[in-house]
Amino acid sequence: MQLFSETWAQAYCQKLNASEAYQKAAATWEGSLALRVRPDPSQGLPQGVAVVLDLWHGACRGVEVVEGEVEADFVIEADLATWQEVLEGRLEPLTALMRGFLELKRGSLAALAPYAQAAQELVRVAREVA
């Protein structure tokens, strides 16, 4: 299944909804999260692409794949190779954020901090889909 495709995004949302660990960890999360791949014409992504998740109290209420710029409460961006490393378990997201491989383009780390466990579950579930 191709990362950041419509099929992958739908499977991700469904797996989040089936995850009791995510539901518990994200019980108070309200807002949208975009996982965005930076533009890269050599990868067939001239405008970039994002998976935008509508997250609400431990549920994924919806998901869409958006080309180009994206609107979301939180936007995390990286090149495709970095996302592949994260989703294949070869690079931890926190390490990637601290080293600048993943970049929080919208939202703040302070606002995300209370949801650290939910963020870990988001990554764990994404790895299952990938």
Automatic annotation (TrEMBL):
Pfam families: SCP2. It comes from the Bacteria. Residues 15-105 form the SCP2 domain. Signal peptide: none annotated. This is Fis family transcriptional regulator. It comes from Thermus tengchongensis.
